[in-house]
Specification:
This protein is α/β, with parallel strands linked by helices. The chain has a 4-stranded parallel beta sheet with strand order 2-1-3-4, with helices on both faces. Strand 5, helix 7 and strand 6 form a beta-alpha-beta unit. The model has no long low-confidence stretch (mean pLDDT 97).
């Protein structure tokens, strides 16, 4: 026969901190994403900043039509991140979808679940990053096919950037994009940068480009902005983290221009 074990309630209730971590960053990412979470844990997460992730359905191939299909899932995905609790920033991690859906519509969909909180998209963050450097003439590298790259080119051109060179790699599966070796991205970036450009933008949150942004900068002598680098920078600044981190890339030494 098992002896009865006495279980006592503690004599006092422990004190609760206001939050487990001081700052909170939410990520709405694709179900197929291999890279964003890893990049944010490397560049953003700390003892003071927590990174909290929700995944939404996505089916390849990466075409404008398929990217647009994610729009109805954005509100639900955002609402699943710490329901009922505020975030210091919330980011939708798809560059090409932010273009075809529209930054404003992405922001509205996320705000429906998380009202009043800063919403970051890779495209809007990249624009802020390029403008922080004073870049007007840019080169762009994407892993996409031409059909998916065209709206990207139009997006930046409509915002006043002169595109000196636009290179795409012809991939349609974001899981394969994630498997492109960082050393290959570095090598391709050299050819993708026009001599007269003020900066290079490397699009796509699936690419492991943020890992080699600093190395590319040293080789081309120009600022490099990548999707995950730009959103990490924006989210850090929304959290009040202004520490310069030049070992990552030049962008991590720049102040955030605000909204």
């Amino acid at each position: 026969m098992t002896a009865t074990i006495d279980i006592m309630t503690a004599s006092r209730r422990p004190r609760l901190d206001e939050r487990p971590l001081e700052k909170r960053v939410g990520l709405v990412i694709l179900a197929t994403d291999h890279t964003t979470e890893v990049d944010f844990h490397r560049m953003v997460a700390s003892d003071c900043i927590g990174v909290y992730v929700s995944r939404i359905h996505y089916a390849n191939p990466t075409t404008p039509e398929n990217l647009l299909k994610m729009q109805p899932s954005l509100t639900m995905g955002a609402g699943l991140i710490l329901p009922g609790e505020p975030l210091d920033a919330i980011m939708y991690s798809c560059t090409s979808a932010s273009v075809v859906i529209g930054d404003d519509k992405v922001e509205a969909a996320i705000a429906a679940a998380k009202p009043g909180m800063p919403v970051v998209t890779p495209t809007a963050a990249a624009v802020k990053a390029l403008r922080a450097f004073g870049a007007k003439r840019i080169s762009i590298l994407t892993p996409y096919i031409v059909e998916t790259s065209r709206p990207m080119a139009n997006y930046f051109a409509a915002l006043g950037f002169e595109i000196d060179r636009f290179t795409c790699l012809g991939f349609t599966d974001d899981r394969e994009m994630a498997r492109i070796a960082p050393e290959e991205i570095e090598a391709i970036a050299l050819d993708a940068t026009a001599p007269g450009s003020d900066a290079l933008f490397i699009s796509c949150t699936a690419l492991r480009a943020a890992q080699v942004a600093g190395r590319i900068e040293r080789k081309i002598g120009k600022p490099v902005v990548t999707s995950n680098l730009a959103t990490a920078w924006a989210c850090l600044r929304h959290c009040g983290d202004d520490r310069p981190r030049p070992e990552i890339a030049r962008l991590m030494t720049m102040p955030y221009p605000g909204d």
